Amino acid sequence: xxxxxxxxxxxxxxxxxxxxxxxxxxxxxxxxxxxxxxxxxxxxxxxxxxxxxxxxxxxxxxxxxxxxxxxxxxxxxxxxxxxxxxxxxxxxxxxxxxxxxxxxxxxxxxxxxxxxxxxxxxxxxxxxxxxxxxxxxxxxxxxxxxxxxxxxxxxxxxxxxxxxxxxxxxxxxxxxxxxxxxxxxxxxxxxxxxxxxxxxxxxxxxxxxxxxxxxxxxxxxxxxxxxxxxxxxxxxxxxxxxxxxxxxxxxxxxxxxxxxxxxxxxxxxxxxxxxxxxxxxxxxxxxxxxxxxxxxxxxxxxxxxxxxxxxxxxxxxxxxxxxxxxxxxxxxxxxxxxxxxxxxxxxxxxxxxxxxxxxxxxxxxxxxxxxxxxxxxxxxxxxxxxxxxxxxxxxxxxxxxxxxxxxxxxxxxxxxx
Length: 417
Fold this sequence. Notes:
Elements: E1 3-7, E2 13-17, H1 22-31, E3 39-42, H2 48-59, E4 63-67, E5 70-74, H3 85-90, H4 97-105, E6 107-111, H5 124-132, E7 136-140, E8 143-147, E9 155-157, H6 163-173, E10 179-183, H7 189-200, E11 204-206, E12 212-216, E13 225-227, H8 232-244, E14 248-252, H9 260-268, E15 272-276, E16 279-283, E17 294-295, H10 307-315, E18 320-324, H11 334-340, E19 344-348, E20 351-355, E21 364-366, H12 370-381, E22 386-390, H13 392-396, H14 402-407, E23 412-416
Parallel strand pairs: 2-14, 3-13, 9-10, 17-18, 21-22
Antiparallel strand pairs: 1-22, 1-23, 3-5, 4-5, 6-8, 7-8, 10-12, 11-12, 14-16, 15-16, 18-20, 19-20
Helix pairs in contact: 1-2, 1-7, 4-6, 5-6, 8-10, 8-12, 10-12
């Protein structure tokens, strides 16, 4: 177990480069199983979740190695269709492999996936979509057993625009005969990145970024070299870190068009943001303004993965903010930890009422999940005294060397293993 020790009070200033997106890399890694040729992935973040996905792929018989900052994956030797139980329990995104393993071998066996405990994330939409393509699925004793003789393209209407279900259906549809149309598909930029990777490998996919995605099945023609998109959640976290400390930051490598909802809320809090291509500069007031209402929604709405960081920001804002969580019902676990630091907040179901205080104070707190842990780091940066944040390994799942990045901006953040 690891912890972060944060001595608050420093005003962040400097330049930081945004690394590749974890949420884009994981489904793309799952997709490499469909490509019987070597694939080179540039800008692939060497995060804990990514390393776990690589381990799952190697247990399935794939070969993978790093060449500098690039990851090379060769799935030609893949020969297993059973996913590791221990690794699947650690990695929620292992569920993406159902579609690709099933498409590759016509069979797949997996346990229910793990990951952060942020609420119910049922996989019924995944399984319903795979069934519509022709998969026979049996759920028994905690295992998901899938098989199919022939997968046929069809229409797949989603009851909710689930990112994971959209990606899983895309992967199996690539190996189905005929055309598949996903209605009410998720529109996240990571969906577009998966489509672009699949097209680079020779698959026929179009429409990602809209609510309708069309996939024409057929085997990939070639491997490829592909650069993964920058991480919009990491970018938003660093911008919020500048805002909560009254700092000034230059962010390099992010795509502002992926972050419109986040940038608008930062501006509402009083921050000045200037954009120049893939560069953003944020200049923040000494104290942020309250946010009258922040509500999480599927993309292009405000991302649930940024709600905890803004919860921390609102905790030191000059007024009362209202935050509504519409995606995960258990994503306010950071609220109690912030109270330990002097925060004032009240939870009412899916709504949080946050009363900003003049200053938080250091305390011993725990990261219960990835983004909630990041929020505690941000709160600690703005607090008086030293804060210890236990279970830092949960934060490592989505941020590459977070302490080093923040140190480069003038923060006093240290890691203790």
